[in-house]
Amino acid sequence: MSALNTVLTDFKFIQSYIKKSSKYNDLKAEIDSVIQKLESIKPNEFVNIFKEQQNFFVCPLINCLLTHNNKLYSDAMGCISKLMMQNLLGEESYKSLLSEMVSYCEIEPEQFTKNIQVISTILTTPSILSIIESHHIMTAISILMIYYEIAPPMIKASTSVTFPLILESLFEKAKKEISEVHSKKKGVIEMNQKWTMTNDLLGLFKDLQVLSLGQPPNILEVNRFDPLMCLKLIKYIIVECSTFFVIKEYLDSLKDFISVLSKHFSHRTQTLSVAHSLIIPLLKYPVRIPFMAILPKPISEPWEVQSFFTICDTCISTSPTIERLVDCTSAIGAFLERTSAPHYPILSSIISDITSLASPDDDKLISVLWPCVHFLLSVFQDETVISMCIPVTTILLHQHQHTAIVALFTSLTKLCGILHNYVPSPLNDHCLNTIYTICETNLYQFGEEEYQIILPVLDAVSNLSDLPDKSSNFSSLPHLLAPELPVSSLKILLSAFSHVAGLCVNSGSMYYSREYLAVLSNCVQLDEVLPENTQIVLLFAASESECASLIPPFMIDLLRKSRSTAALELTRQLLLSESKKCVSNTLDVLSTVIETIENEMVGKWHILLEPLGKCAQEKINVGNAFGVVKQIASQIGTLKMEECLDIVNVVGQFTIQENDINVSLSAIQLLWDMLESVTGDQMMNNGLSEKDVLMLNILRVMKQTVNDSRYVIWGGMVQTLLRALGNVSTTLSSIAWANAIDEILLPVLEELRNEIYCRIADIQVVPEFKKSNVKINSYLNSMMREWNEIVVVVLSGLIRLIPTFNKFEEEFKLKIFNECIVFANVAFYKPTYITIETVLKYLHCIKQHTTQLVTIKENVLLIENEITQMVILNNGINTSLIQLFASQILNEGTSHSINILFKLINVYPDDHYLVDNKWSSIQQLVITGLKKLSISSLNEKDKESIKMSFIDLINDLSKLKTTNDRINDSKWYCFPLLIEIAMNWKLKIYDSILQIIQLTTIHFTDEISVGYGPKQCLSEIRSNIIKRIETVSNEEKVIIAKILFNIEPILSISKDEIIEVDCIICNKESLTLFNTIVKWCGDESIDLSQRIELIDIVIGNCQFFYFGLKQSICAYESVLCLLENKSIEDIVLNKFIISLNKCFERYNKMIDSSSREICYVMDDIFSILIQMYKDYYPQRLSSMIIKTIYQLTIGTITSSNIEIRVSALAVLKSLSSVLLQ
Question: Domain Mon2/Sec7/BIG1-like dimerisation and cyclophilin-binding, which positions (predicted)?
């Protein structure tokens, strides 16, 4: 039958059933349509049409399934199964089918088998797997699991066989995804997200793990699945699909499975046997085996114990990694404690196999292995176990596991009974032979613990008459105790003797101790024997029994007989003893014998110097120890170079000890004395003489005391160190002096800079601060006074040293001076004026010796600027500080120094006083110095900087407001002098000059305290300018003229003071200048535009006549003079006419105040003008002025002021004669 007829027949079966029922009308219509369609299709076109219209044909079948009618469900599934076998279904069809199958499982029993076959076919047919998505595959597996859970037993058994086949099919598909990568790469590979099937199978593997514990899965659509079946499927994957465990994610999941497996072992359910069977397959993977979980429980079945042994054996033989061996041994050790004798043989065999695999580097393995051997020794006396002690002990000795060795030795000695009535027997003999073999091969590695066990055994063996054959040489060991034996034997004798004597130290018996010390004292080979017996001597010396009293006479006798290295080393060890009594006794011994032995100790003192230095830290012994050290130091002239260096270092330790301050001070003095006593001109390999090297070392030791927390020591050493550096600066060679600076001075400066403030202020970090804002203190507490004192000491010491830096190369000088500059910052933490004075001297000294170091000079200038600002903000503190500052920079003549001087002019210390009742001594010093300076050599940039500073100074002085009359008077006195300096230096600060003139007029009426105020200031300013106006350019002459004859500022002055101002403006000197200006107006060598500005100045001065100013009369007269100059007559006349119009306009607005000016103009000026121009009338200029005079005069004829009317009539009379003419 063809495919078309088969499908058509199935649909007709379904149609016939539906017709019998009235429930499925919609479904009937769909089935009828499909049948009608199928009947119209030709057989050879069926496959293509079905695939093209698959949804049309398959949907009715799915709808049949949805009816959940058993008959329809069975017929529809049958049809679907046939379509599937003919490979006619596509992905969408499978998706719909699987969705329905997973959602409905209440089918007839016989239908289970059919459905399982459908699912199995889907999951094992490659062509079907290739067209459905992977998550649909997981849905299919979920369906199968659901069927497995609810199916009858017979069907369930057949289904369990299906799962491995499905897994095989799926993993075969997944292999194709990873085949190319796996073949190219070795080792672990990363999962690729494109490997969909591989990823889903990994999810399936993880879901089987959680399902085995009854937990919900991640990708499977089931709630539960048989745990036993889960583990079987997992085992299948682990065993049969090992290829996939080269993927990192699979391997990680396998590691997670170990914890799942451990839970199965702990739950002890029906899965236990399968869990056991999973362990051996896991051994081939790099995962940790849960031996402790496998460990049989007290309630375990015999098969579990046997399985445990099998797993252990398999692990040891197939995959014995250290981690697994450690875990396996740990589990065996735990099992030993709970098992019984029948299991000991097999356990000892397993332990023996593990022992054969152990090496000295396997610390963890040995730590768990030897307890097992030790346990078996105690419960299972077998030669195999005893023999295991040899390799185990060898490894333990290599690892210095003395406690373990002692435990094994103790068990062996107990086992053979050598210390308690030894009875020969094969087992005892084997045990004794084992001890002998261990001693023979490993004696050189024995420690004190082993000897404590072995020496009694040797003693016991020496008393045996019948020894085992293998240990016959053991009997020769007791003969080593004889005193006449050679050195090697003597050492053994003393070792045994010392052990016995040591046991008797606190028991009250003196015999062993006395005899032991007698042997040492009379020993010829002292250097070879004594070092090995030092500890027992120290034990005696430190004991609380009478044994300690034997040591001092023993040591005195020993040192007088021998100054050998061994004797001195023993003395050294006694000095290093933790027993203070022992140290004290030894110091007494040295004090007793030092004068006797000192001549023979040259070259050997270094042995004792180190422990003597450590005595500095013991309060009870520091004085005695320093006495010995001082005696040795007194021989510094005769000691070898190495000993000199050592004694210096030891003395240094006594300077920094904190137990006795007097010892520290004495040690500092001793260092100074040693520095003065240094000799030795022999050159060394490093280019330094012995004297250089020793002096440098003494200085280095002095340097370390700078860390002392006690101020008296710290401060004393800082002073001593700087003084010492100053003394040796001319004594040391240039190389040594450079080393002293680099290794001692610079680090000390850095250390002081970083710690000095923290030490005094008891803080951890120096706070950030701006030097210009620092408050200069006039009173400080004791701690801060100490700090300032030490700063002053350091800076003063550096001032002494700075000249010696000139001999160095520029790069090194730059390094030194950089540190010196940085150290200067220390002085600004909480300074007094004395501190700041010292800083100024210090900076001045640096500047004198760094003329070629530009960066250093720049840094000094920066600090000086900050000091200047600080001085200003602190009101200068006192006069002496400012005088020092000013005097230091006066002679520099640089832009920087001049700018600072300008700022100092504006500083008024609290203690400042006036000189000649005019100005302060500081200003006198500064301004007098400035007047002597010349800036002609400076470049234009510096000159511009000075100009700006000048302007800033004048602005600051102008803004200065204070109730202190002396400061105010000083300010007025400074202004003229500053203007004089500016004119001398040719600084064009004309705006500032005008500002000062305006300021003087504003404060013209201020009260003054000592006779010098704004009036004198104005007069002298004008005088200073007038004297120098001839030296400036024409352009500047115009500017200066405008400033000097700008009458606007006097408007702010009261009328009572105007006449006095007028006297200043119109004094002899000013009138001379004004007349000169009038001449300049006609000087054709001056630019016309500049002459016009001068004309404006002259005419502008006419307008203030109404104030009664003499200057106005002078101006009017000057205008008449200018009109006589024909070259400028036209310009002057036009401007003058404008001025005259303004004059009469003012009269009309302020009649009372300007009548005098009107009268003066009409009586004097108009009459002269008429006389000047009457002969030229009616020429243009003459006509213009005559007309102006007429118009202005006729306007006043009706004035109420009779004087004006009289003057007007006189003018008109004069005009009439001109007009009539």
Answer: 4-176
**pTM summary value:** 0.49
The dihedral built from the CA positions of residue 652, 653, 657 and 662, taken in this order, carries a sign that is negative
In DSSP terms, 920 is beta-bridged to 914
H-assigned helices in 762-824 = 782-801, 810-823
Residue 935 identity (one-letter amino acid):
I
Q: What is the DSSP string of 849-910?
A: T-TT-HHHHHHHHHHHHHHHHHHHHTTTS-HHHHHHHHHHHHTT--HHHHHHHHHHHT---T
> Which helix (DSSP H) or strand (DSSP E) does residue 919 occupy?
strand 919-920
Query: Using CA atoms, how far apart are residues 316 and 1103, in angstroms rounded to an integer?
Result: 126
* Dist. CA 923–CA 194, nearest whole Å: 90
Where would I find the H helices in 285-362? 291-294, 302-318, 322-338, 344-357
Question: Quick one: three-class SS letters along 957-1013?
Answer: HHHCCCCCHHHHHHHHHHHHHHHHHHHHCCCCCHHHHHHHHHHHHHCCCCCCCCCCC
Tokens 């990694």 -> residue:
321
Joined tokens for residue 246: 């080269």
Three-class SS of residue 689?
strand
Q: In Å, how far are 52, 746, 825, 901 from 843, measured between CA atoms? A: 101, 17, 11, 16
Backbone angles phi, psi at 362, to 5 degrees: -90, 75
Q: How confident is the model at residue 235 (pLDDT cuts 50, 70, 90)?
A: confident
pLDDT for 1095 beyond 50: yes
Contact predicate 72/63, CB 8 Å: no
289-313 pLDDT, tens digit per residue, is 888 888 888 777 888 888 888 988 8
State the Cα–Cα distance between residues 341 and 380, nearest whole angstrom: 8
Nearest Cα neighbor of 706 from 734, 659, 671, 678 is 671
Domain ranges of the chain: 1-181+192-234, 475-599, 604-704, 705-851
Peptide bond into 1178 cis (omega under 30): yes
CA atoms within 13 A of residue 741's CA, in its CB half-sphere? 26
Quote the CA–CA distance of 938 and 894 in Å, as a whole number.
Answer: 7
Torsion-angle region of 214 (φ positive above 0: left; ψ -120 to 50: alpha; else: beta): left
DSSP 1022-1047: HHHHHHHGGGS-HHHHHHHHHHHT--
Beta-carbon contacts of residue 1021 (< 8 Å; ≥ 6 apart): 975, 976, 979, 993, 996, 997, 1000
Q: Phi, psi at residue 1008, to the nearest 5°?
A: -120, 155
Structure-token match 């058994």, residue found: 157
Which tokens go with 1001? 């007029």
Q: Tell me how far apart the alpha carbons of residues 145 and 126 are, in angstroms, rounded to a whole number.
A: 21
Distance, in Å, from the CA atom of 375 to the CA atom of 378, rounded to the nearest integer, reads: 5
Q: Given the DSSP bridges, would you call strands 914-915 and 919-920 parallel, antiparallel or unpaired?
A: antiparallel
Q: CA-CA distance, 199 to 781, in Å (whole number)?
A: 79
Q: What was the pLDDT predicted at 485?
A: 39
Burial class (CB in 10 A: 0-12, 13-18, 19+), 617: middle
Calculated CA dihedral for residues 650, 652, 658, 662, nearest 10 degrees = 100
CA proximity to 7, closest of 29, 30, 34: 34
Per-residue confidence band for 1109, with pLDDT thresholds at 50, 70 and 90: low
- Tokens coding 995: 């500002």
Query: Mean of the per-residue pLDDT values for the chain?
Result: 78
Cα–Cα nearest to 290, from 317, 323, 267, 268? 323
Are residues 397 and 446 in contact, defined by beta-carbon separation less than 8 angstroms?
yes
Encoded tokens for 536: 């027992």
pLDDT computed for residue 212 by the predictor: 86
